[in-house]
Design a protein that fits this description.
The chain is an all-alpha fold. It folds into three domains: 1-75, no CATH class; 82-179, no CATH class; 203-429, no CATH class. The protein contains 22 helices and no strands. The protein has helices spanning 25-35, 38-42, 44-51, 54-58, 60-66, 100-107, 113-117, 121-130, 139-145, 168-172, 189-194, 203-215, 219-223, 233-238, 252-273, 279-295, 314-333, 338-349, 362-381, 385-389, 393-402, 411-429.
Length: 432
């Protein structure tokens, strides 16, 4: 049975999660249940219909205006589709700050590639192995690859195309209640958010919006041949064609750290719930906790956790789930500095001794190295010219080569190369 995650910061339902995953799970689960019509609680079809628009239903402004506390039918805002945003006077023009639709439709891979992937032979083979039927019509696939397919027809404006893949409202929220007002000069950003527009200025909200489809796979889908997913908010944001104003963006290192914490939260939830979780998931989870424990030492005031991640249990996974959400929220709100980036790099780069510990299984060592190299890549990018002056690029490339094939991972060789990287980086890390 498809388990639905209702998250206040996303609109899609996805597999392998019980109802209302995420950092505020209990609060929103209780709130949602309290206003849910009685019939929907016992009718799975109606439950699914409501769940796929979970973000809209869980916003207090929507619940107050659209849902009646006397048990009548819940109403949700409609999805109006990209055409509602694409006029030349709005986001389809060529002028400054008016070309968002053009950038999305012409250059952003989210426009067509996710849906097109469902039409490939590989997608058909995965769907056949799992007995899902047509992958372009199965919610197990379309929840992420074509979210509009999972939305009830009466909540879709006429003429919307499922093939649009991840469209404007997949990220910004169904537009019916905020479309007209969001251009008004007397509306603040807070007014738009209260009307139902998702607050993507918040790094925490942005991470929650993206993580479900970029991180979590049920073990059955993974074993059927789906590629592994790796959520890396900063790197994936940088690679995306910009269709937003970047003046208010947080530093890349901060975005990276919030994204990693949210990824751990989702991974911890999956590990605690899946009855047939695979060993690789446990190794990835263990490696990510190790990484965040190290990065978290950059500031003694950040939420900390002491946890034996090398022996995962459901209880430990849930402890990590709670901690990682607190950590993500805390990091999203701080004022990030260049010094914090340097402290994170310094703490991670001097871990060569950890790769000589014989008590740590090699699969976990390999996953630690993989996470570590990606972290160093994102963090040193934030150092800008200092990274170039220290000539860290070739040393980082060599570390990437070390983790290119995880089954062939050589801990002593990686430790040696990491030590050389740290020696070259120490000069710029200790100057401030």
């Amino acid at each position: 049975m498809l388990a639905i995650s209702i998250n206040p910061n996303q609109t899609t339902a996805h597999r392998a999660y019980p109802v209302s995953s995420g950092g505020r799970r209990d609060q929103h689960c209780i709130f949602f249940q309290s206003v849910l019509p009685k019939k929907a609680k016992t009718d799975p079809a109606r439950w699914l219909r409501l769940a796929v628009v979970g973000a809209a239903l869980l916003r207090s402004s929507v619940l107050c205006t659209g849902a009646q506390q006397d048990g009548s039918e819940l109403t949700a805002p409609k999805f109006l589709g990209a055409p509602s945003c694409s006029s030349s006077s709005c986001h389809g023009g060529a002028g400054a700050n008016k070309d968002q639709y053009l950038v999305w439709s012409k250059y952003d891979y989210h426009h067509a590639r996710p849906y097109a992937t469902l039409e490939t032979a590989r997608a058909e083979h995965i769907a056949e192995a799992l007995k899902l039927g047509d992958p372009t019509r199965s919610a197990a696939c379309t929840a992420c690859h074509a979210p509009l397919q999972t939305v009830p027809n009466d909540l879709l404006s006429q003429g919307l195309k499922i093939s649009d893949g991840v469209s404007c409202e997949s990220c910004h929220g169904p537009a019916e209640r905020w479309l007209r007002g969001h251009t008004r000069h007397d509306w603040s950003h807070a007014d738009r958010v209260r009307a139902g527009m998702r607050d993507l200025r918040s790094v925490y909200v942005r991470a929650n919006t993206c993580v479900a489809c970029h991180q979590t796979l049920g073990s059955d889908i993974r074993q059927a041949g789906h590629p592994e997913l790796f959520f890396e908010l900063d790197g994936q944001t940088v690679s995306q064609p910009k269709h937003w104003r970047t003046a208010n963006d947080k530093p890349g290192a901060q975005i990276w750290l919030v994204g990693q914490a949210v990824a751990l939260r989702e991974m911890s939830w999956q590990l605690s719930q899946e009855k047939a979780s695979y060993e690789d998931l446990a190794a990835r989870w263990s490696a990510l906790i190790w990484l965040l424990q190290l990065a978290g030492k950059a500031d003694g005031h950040w939420p900390a956790i002491e946890l034996n991640a090398n022996a995962p249990t459901a209880e430990r996974a849930m402890e990590a789930h709670r901690w990682s959400d607190r950590f993500a929220k805390a990091i999203a709100e701080i004022s990030w500095s260049d010094g914090l980036t340097r402290k994170c790099v310094a703490g991670l780069a001097k871990t060569q001794g950890a790769f000589g510990d014989p008590k740590i299984p090699r699969p976990i060592q390999a996953r630690r190295a993989e996470r570590l190299v990606l972290a160093l890549d994102r963090l040193t990018t934030g150092l800008g010219a200092a990274m170039s002056s220290a000539k860290l690029g070739p040393l980082l490339d060599r570390l990437f080569e070390d983790v290119q094939s995880l089954p062939d991972f050589d801990p002593p060789q990686f430790a040696k190369h990491l030590q050389e990287f740290h020696a070259s980086a120490s000069g710029i890390l200790e100057t401030r």
